C-alpha cells in the first residue's frame, strides 16, 4: 500500500471569526445608536454637536476593527515547514524543529512541540471548529511525518524512565 504525499495545509479559526464579526457588528450598531441618540444640545455641563456624533461612530469603527484583529490567526504548512501567525506573533519553522503536533482532548487549540522543548500555540486550529480542526491536525501530522521519515532512529536509552 503506497501512501499519497500530504498536500499543503491551511487553517483559520472559522467559528471564532464568525463570532468576532457578529460582535464587531454589534459594537458598531450600538455606537451608531448612541451617536444618533445624541441631539445637538447645550446644557450646563456639555455641548453636543454633529462632530461628537461622528466621533462616537468613528470610535465604534475603531473598536470593531480591534475586535476583528483578534481573529487573524492562521497556520500554513507545506513540505518545507510550517508558518504560524497568532494574533501578533509570527513563527516560521522547518519540520526538523517540530517534534510533535499536539491537540489534547481538553485543549482549546492545537500546538507544536518543538525539539528544544518549547511549545508554539496554533490559535488558528481551535477545538470549536471540530472537523476542520481535526483535518488540519491530521494534515500537519502527515506533513511532519513525511518530512521526518528519513531521520535516524535514536538508540535505545540505557535507563528509560
Notes on the structure:
With 161 residues, this protein is α+β, with helices and mostly antiparallel strands. It is 38% helix and 22% strand. The protein has a four-stranded antiparallel β-sheet, with helices on one face. The protein has a three-stranded antiparallel β-sheet with strand order 5-6-7. Helix 1 runs antiparallel to helix 2. It is elongated. The mean pLDDT is 88.
Bin the strand percentage. 15-25%
Structural class: alpha+beta
Q: What's the rounded overall pLDDT mean?
A: 88
What integer value in Å does the Rg equal? 24 Å
Amino- and carboxy-terminal Cα gap: 35 Å
Main sheet, how many strands, which sense, barrel? 4 strands, antiparallel
Strand order of the largest sheet: 1-2-3-4
Helix count from the secondary structure assignment = 3
Estimate the helix proportion, in percent. 25-40%
Oligomeric form of this entry?
single chain
Shape descriptor reads: elongated
Question: What is the H/E string?
Answer: EHHEEEEEEH
Work out the number of β strands: 7
Instruction: Give start-end ranges of low-pLDDT stretches.
Output: none
Keywords:
single chain, 161 residues, alpha+beta, 4-stranded antiparallel sheet, 3-stranded antiparallel sheet, 3 helices, 7 strands, 38% helix, 22% strand, elongated
Record the SSE blueprint.
Blueprint lengths: L8 E3 L2 H24 L12 H20 L4 E4 L3 E5 L4 E5 L3 E5 L6 E6 L4 E8 L4 H17 L14
Antiparallel strand pairs: 1-2, 2-3, 3-4, 5-6, 6-7
Helix pairs in contact: 1-2
